[in-house]
Every structure is written in structure tokens, then in C-alpha cells.
Amino acid sequence: MSKHAKLLNHLQNGHEVTAKQITGTFGIKNAGRAVHYLREQGHCVYSNQVTMSDGTEGTKYRIGKPSRRMVALANAVLGAQVFTR
């Protein structure tokens, strides 16, 4: 199983991860690029700004379901062909 597949599986199981966790746990050096890759594959990966337990600001990533507003915006910008395979 590839590193990206392991990350996707982890996210699909309901876990949130930080960029540091993506690097440390999955061995992916560029966490932002990994998230971008998953989004290109059609997965709805959300990034949420959080305050970590040590008080620093960071980003956590999670899999989610797109809102109706997000789907409507995609349709308005890209057209209906974005929803067909």
C-alpha cells in the first residue's frame, strides 16, 4: 500500500492529522502536496486552523462531506461536467 493510500485510509477512518503527523507517521515529506494530491483524486479533505496543546497555531486535515453550498459553487464555476466521470 502506498504512503498516500495509507494516509487516505487513516483519514477515512475518522482521524485528523497535522502536517507533522503526516510526515512522521506516513513518511511523506511534503504534507501540503499530499493533501493536494488527495484532493485532485476527488477526496474532500478539509483543513482547519487549530490551536495545539502547546499554544501554537497549526492546521489539521480531515475527510469530510462537501456542503450543498460547496457543490453549488463548484457547479457554478466549473459546470456540471465536474460531476461526471
Q: In angstroms, what is the radius of gyration?
A: 14 Å
Task: Write down how many β-strands occur, each being a DSSP E stretch of 2 or more residues.
Answer: 3
* Average predicted confidence as pLDDT: 91
User: Share of helix among residues?
Assistant: 40-55%
What is the multimeric organization of the chains shown? single chain
Question: Structural class, please?
Answer: alpha+beta
Percent of residues in beta strands: 15-25%
Major sheet: size, sense and barrel closure? 3 strands, antiparallel
The low-confidence runs, each spanning 5 or more residues with pLDDT under 50, are none
**Distance separating the two termini:** 25 Å
DSSP helical segment count:
4
| Strand order in the sheet with the most strands | 1-3-2
What shape does the CA trace take? Answer: globular
Topology as H/E string? HEHHEEH
Write the layout of secondary structure elements.
Blueprint: H1 3-12, E1 17-18, H2 19-26, H3 31-40, E2 45-51, E3 57-63, H4 68-78
Antiparallel strand pairs: 1-3, 2-3
Would you mind describing this structure in some detail?
There is one protein chain. Helix content is 46%, strand content 19%. The chain is of the alpha+beta class and 85 residues long. It is globular and about 45 Å long.
A few lines on this structure:
This protein is an alpha+beta fold. The chain contains 4 helices and 3 strands, in the order H-E-H-H-E-E-H.
Characteristic terms for this protein:
85 residues, alpha+beta, 3-stranded antiparallel β-sheet, 3 strands
